[in-house]
Design brief:
four-stranded antiparallel β-sheet, binds magnesium ion, 15 strands, single chain, 487 residues, binds adenosine-5'-diphosphate, Beta-Lactamase, Heat Shock Protein 90, alpha+beta, Helix Hairpins
C-alpha cells in the first residue's frame, strides 16, 4: 500500500498535528492565565498602597498636598522599589508630577474610568493606563488626595514598572523552559508514541483484512484463506472480517453453482444437438433417396419414404416445441393463470379426449375419487399438459390390455391426482432422475422416439403452480402423483 495514503500514516500525521495544536494552545492559555493570576495577586497585595503612602509619608499637610514630601517619596521609591511608579494626577487625569524618569513617560494624561471603577469598588481588578506606554495597561492602586470632601487630584500608583516587567519576563522564560515546556513536551511525546503504537496495532488488523481481500480478488475469487487469528472482540474490524468471510463464502458457492450450471447447459446443448441430429439425418436421408432414385422406386416405396420423412419431421418439430416450452418455463416466461377449478371434471374431459387412442391401444382408463367437488388452485391448461404427459407415458409403458388408473385424493392442504399403470417397474435409484431433461430410464434407452423432456416439463409446470410431482413404484407398475394446493 502506498506509504502516504495508508490509513496508519494519515492517523499518525493527524495525531502529531493534534498534539502540536494542544501543546501550543495549552502553553498560550497557561501563560495568559498565569499572567492574569500574577497581576491580580499583585493588585490584591497592593490595593491600599496609594492610601498607605499618603498616610505614611505625610503627603497631605493641612488639607494640601505637601510637594516637598511628595518629591522625597518619588526619589525614595525610584531607588528602593522600582516595581512601582507613583504619579500625581489632577481631577481630569492629567499627569502633574511623577517618580519616573521624564524621558520614559509617554502620556500626559490617563483615563479616569478605571480609576473611578477602582475607587467605587465596581470592578475588583481594573487595569489602568500605563503612562510609560501609549497603549499598555497595568494594575494600579489609587487614592484621592487630599482625601475628604474636596479632593484636588489622585495619587496613582502603577504596579510593576518596566524594569520589573523585563526582569519578570526573563524569569518567566526560565520558568517555562524549566518546568512547563519540558514536562509538557515530554508528556506529548509519550502520548504521541503511545498513540502511534495503538494506531499501529489497530491498523495492523485492518491491513491483514485488506491483504486477505486483495489475495481473494487476485485469485479470481477462488482462494479465501480462513482467518488465522480468531478475534474474540466483537469490534467493527472483527465484524468487517466476519461479514467479508460470509461474502467470500457466498461468492465462492455462487461461482461454483454458476460453473455447475454452465456445465449442465453445455451438456444440454450437446444432448439437444445430438437428439435433433438423429431425426434430421433420417429425414434428410429419405428425402435424398427420393430425389436420387425417384424413377427406380415404386409408387408404394415412394409413399413409404415420404411417410417416414414426414414422421421424422414431425418428431423434430415436436422436440423443438418441447425444448422451447421447457426453456420458457425455466426462464419463468410462462406465467400461470391461477384460478380455482375442479380436477375431477378435468379428468372426465381428459378420458373423453383419449377414448379413441385408448381403444386402439387396447387399454382402459378408470377414474377414482374421494370427494366429488373438491376445488384446487391452479392453471387448468398447464395442469392438463402435465396429465397429458403422464397419461402418454403410462400408455407407452402399460402392459398389454391393462388398465390405467386416475385417482384423486384430497387432504386439508392439497389435492393429489395420480396416474398409475401396470408394467415394468422403474429402478429405485432412477426415480429421482426421471425429471431431469433428456433422462430416459435404461430399459427405454434404445428407443429414441421420445426425447425425455415430458417429465422435466411436468416438474417445471408443477413448480410454477406451487405444487409438486412424485414418482414411485407400485407392486405391479408405476405411479406418478401431482399435488396442487387446495382453493
Ligand atoms: N409410466 C412409466 N413407466 C415406466 N417408466 C416411465 C414411465 N413414465 C416415464 N418413465 C420413464 O421416464 C423417462 C422420462 O420420461 P419423459 O420425461 O416423459 O420422457 P419420454 O417420455 O420422452 O421418454 C422415460 O424415458 C421412461 O424411462
Ligand atoms: Mg413422455
Amino acid at each position: 500500500m502506498n506509504g502516504f495514503k495508508s490509513l496508519y500514516t494519515r492517523l499518525a500525521f493527524g495525531l502529531i498535528l493534534l498534539l502540536f495544536v494542544i501543546g501550543v494552545l495549552y502553553t498560550a492559555l497557561n501563560t495568559i492565565a498565569t499572567q492574569r493570576f500574577v497581576a491580580q495577586l499583585n493588585q490584591d497585595l497592593h490595593r491600599t498602597l496609594a492610601q498607605n503612602l499618603v498616610a505614611d509619608k505625610n503627603l497631605v499637610a493641612q488639607g494640601k498636598i505637601d510637594e516637598a514630601a511628595l518629591k522625597k517619596t518619588f526619589q525614595q521609591y525610584m531607588v528602593v522599589n522600582p516595581s512601582i511608579e507613583i504619579y500625581l494626577l489632577d481631577l481630569e487625569g492629567k499627569l502633574l508630577s511623577y517618580s519616573a524618569d521624564p524621558d520614559v513617560v509617554m502620556r500626559s494624561r490617563v483615563s479616569l474610568e478605571p480609576i473611578k471603577a477602582f475607587l467605587s469598588g465596581v470592578e475588583k481588578y481594573p487595569l489602568g493606563d500605563d503612562p510609560r506606554s501609549h497603549d499598555k495597561q497595568k494594575s494600579f492602586s489609587v487614592t484621592e488626595v487630599p482625601s475628604g470632601s474636596a479632593p484636588e487630584g489622585y495619587l496613582y500608583v502603577v504596579l510593576r514598572g518596566e524594569q520589573y516587567d523585563a526582569l519578570e519576563s526573563m524569569a518567566f522564560q526560565g520558568f517555562w523552559a524549566l518546568a512547563g515546556l519540558w514536562s509538557m513536551a515530554l508528556s506529548l511525546c509519550v502520548g504521541l508514541l503511545a498513540g502511534l503504537a495503538i494506531f499501529y496495532w489497530l491498523t495492523k488488523r485492518l491491513r491483514r483484512v485488506s491483504r486477505r481481500i486483495e489475495v481473494f480478488s487476485e485469485s479470481d475469487f477462488k482462494s479465501w484463506s480462513a482467518s488465522e487469528i480468531s478475534d474474540s472482540s466483537e469490534d467493527e474490524i472483527a465484524q468487517i472480517e466476519q461479514i467479508f468471510e460470509q461474502m467470500a463464502a457466498r461468492i465462492q458457492s455462487q461461482l461454483a453453482a454458476l460453473i455447475d450450471k454452465d456445465k449442465q447447459r453445455r451438456q444440454l446443448v450437446a444432448q439437444v444437438s445430438h437428439d435433433l441430429r438423429t431425426p434430421l439425418a433420417s429425414m434428410l436421408g429419405y428425402i435424398e433417396s427420393l430425389k436420387i432414385k425417384r424413377n427406380k422406386l415404386s409408387a408404394k416405396e415412394q409413399e413409404k419414404f415420404l411417410e417416414v420423412a414426414y414422421r421424422q419431421g414431425r418428431r423434430l418439430g415436436h422436440m423443438v416445441d418441447s425444448l422451447f416450452e421447457l426453456s420458457s418455463l425455466e426462464a419463468k416466461e410462462i406465467k400461470p393463470q391461477l384460478e380455482p377449478f375442479v380436477p375431477l371434471e378435468l379428468l372426465f374431459d381428459i378420458r373423453q379426449k383419449y377414448a379413441i387412442r385408448l381403444r386402439e391401444a387396447g387399454l382402459s382408463l378408470e377414474i377414482e375419487f374421494d370427494q366429488q367437488g373438491a376445488f384446487a388452485m391452479g392453471d387448468v391448461s398447464l395442469f392438463e399438459r402435465v396429465l397429458d404427459n403422464l397419461i402418454e407415458n403410462a400408455m407407452v409403458h402399460a402392459a398389454t390390455s391393462s388398465q390405467i388408473m386416475l385417482r384423486i385424493e384430497s387432504s386439508a392442504e392439497s389435492i393429489g391426482v395420480s396416474v398409475s399403470n401396470q408394467g415394468e417397474l422403474i429402478n429405485e435409484k432412477e426415480l429421482s432422475s426421471l425429471f431431469d431433461p433428456f433422462y430416459r430410464a435404461d430399459s427405454q434407452s434404445v428407443d429414441r422416439r421420445h426425447a425425455g423432456l415430458g417429465l422435466a416439463i411436468s416438474r417445471q409446470i408443477m413448480e410454477s403452480l406451487e405444487g409438486s410431482i412424485l414418482a414411485s413404484n407400485t407392486v405391479d407398475g408405476v405411479i406418478f402423483t401431482v399435488y396442487l394446493p387446495i382453493a
